[in-house]
Amino acid sequence: MPPYADRHRLMVSGKAGLRQRLCGAATAVLVVLASSAAGAAALVPPDQAPASPPMPQVAQDVENPSAKVRRQALRALRERGGPETLPLFARLLADAEPDIREGALAGVIGVYVPPPPKRSIDGAAEAFQVARFRVELWPLPDELSRALVKALADDWPSVRRDAAYALGIVLTPPVSDAVAFEIMASLSDREPSVRIAAARTLGHLQVRSAGVALVGRINDDDLDVRLASMNALGDLRDEGSVVALTDQFRFYVRGSAGRAALSALGAVGQESSVPLFEAQTASGYPAHRWAAYEGLARSGRAAAAAPRIEAAMASEKDPRVLLAMAFALASAGRDGVNRVLDALTDRDRADAALAYLVELGRPHVAAIAARLGDPNPVVREQIAIALGFIGGPEAAAALKGASGESDPTVRHALDVAQVRITRATAEPAPRAH
């Protein structure tokens, strides 16, 4: 039994009681925004329409003894949307009817993750993925954070699963120790989908104390839990997991577990993995080459390999691998960022390209900001998002210079990015874990 198992078993044995005691202490760490009407108006999604009945009536209906009336209140809240609905959704998360609790979770997620233009979002897991770069920066009411943490212990697996995803959407790192404990405890949930949601959320929220527990989940009975745990270790850049991930790769190699292990190793980018990365650049599997070039970039070895990467680009056919090669070159200070920028127009590669741009960061702000003048509004929107996450005075100046933007979706992305930078400047440095 792995060394962490006894500790984690003891932790989970007190799960229900600790959930109740810690729930009151759970504090929201997402977004401290100005409460002025102007500050909120800057973040209102395009085409958000007012709803009826009036909120005082809906608030009364939320507490009505009739489940039918409460369902009508839930429907009214979901139709209305907006941050003013969040405290009422929090109350419905404790409803006696499971379908109302499920609907309240969907409502909360819908407030923070409106569907992108010309696209629908199918469920909490997909919303979690979209939210990575497109979450709305609404303040998080204390009562909602407490209700979401409590929902991790709901009787219904779908509620527990979606509560884990919702916490990943509405929170931002660093999370409190109390909340981190609760999400980590869900790694031992009897339902695999809940364990998957917990693993993904822990990685996204950078809960570094979860590394040992996630390593243990690499041997979960459920394949998808194993894959989610390896991806989460990559998100955490957990160097303590390198040996276990390497063992997984060497055992499975060609299977999905092997690909996930190599991808996680590429995300960690530890120097000890460089020989493996170099060997896999010649792999016959595109996913292996992709992860290998990411690993070279993050290990700091791309500069030494740059001539070989540039030569290999001439014969590489897979567009995903070409994008990873461009990322590696850009990370080494070579010409590559423009190839990453060009990939923003490719729907299959746009999300990866956006993530690379954010990771490349401030040394490349000038090249990134230059694309705010791109004729394609989809590109301009993604550039605004990237600059908001990169931050700093140069990014802020570039966003301010785009104030004449005519496309409403791009304008919204610009507004959110500016608020994100303002908030990051005003907030104290995150505490150590």
3D structure, described in words:
This protein has 433 residues and is an all-alpha fold. The protein has a single domain (4-42, 54-234, 309-426), classed as Leucine-rich Repeat Variant. It is 65% helix and 0% strand. It contains 26 helices and no strands. It has helices at 4-13, 15-23, 37-41, 55-62, 67-80, 86-92, 98-112, 123-134, 142-151, 157-170, 177-185, 192-204, 211-217, 223-236, 242-252, 256-268, 274-280, 286-299, 302-313, 319-331, 337-342, 350-360, 365-369, 377-390, 393-401, 408-426. Helix 17 packs antiparallel against helix 18, helix 18 runs parallel beside helix 20 and helix 24 (377-390) packs antiparallel against helix 25. The radius of gyration is 22 Å and the shape is globular. The two termini are 26 Å apart.
Lay out the secondary structure.
Blueprint: H1 4-13, H2 15-23, H3 37-41, H4 55-62, H5 67-80, H6 86-92, H7 98-112, H8 123-134, H9 142-151, H10 157-170, H11 177-185, H12 192-204, H13 211-217, H14 223-236, H15 242-252, H16 256-268, H17 274-280, H18 286-299, H19 302-313, H20 319-331, H21 337-342, H22 350-360, H23 365-369, H24 377-390, H25 393-401, H26 408-426
Features:
433 residues; 65% helix; 0% strand; 26 helices; mainly alpha; Leucine-rich Repeat Variant; single chain
Taken in chain order, the helices and strands follow as HHHHHHHHHHHHHHHHHHHHHHHHHH
Query: In angstroms, what is the radius of gyration?
Result: 22 Å
State the fourth-level CATH superfamily: Leucine-rich Repeat Variant
Q: Give the CATH class.
A: Mainly Alpha
N-to-C span: 26 Å
Tell the overall outline.
globular
Strand content: under 5%
User: What share of residues is helical?
Assistant: 55-70%
Low-confidence stretches: 1-46, 429-433
Integer tally of domains:
1
- The overall pLDDT average reads 89
Number of H- or I-type helical stretches = 26
Label the CATH architecture.
Alpha Horseshoe
Q: Which structural class should the secondary elements be placed in?
A: mainly alpha
CATH fold field value = Leucine-rich Repeat Variant
Total strands: 0
Sheet with the most strands? none
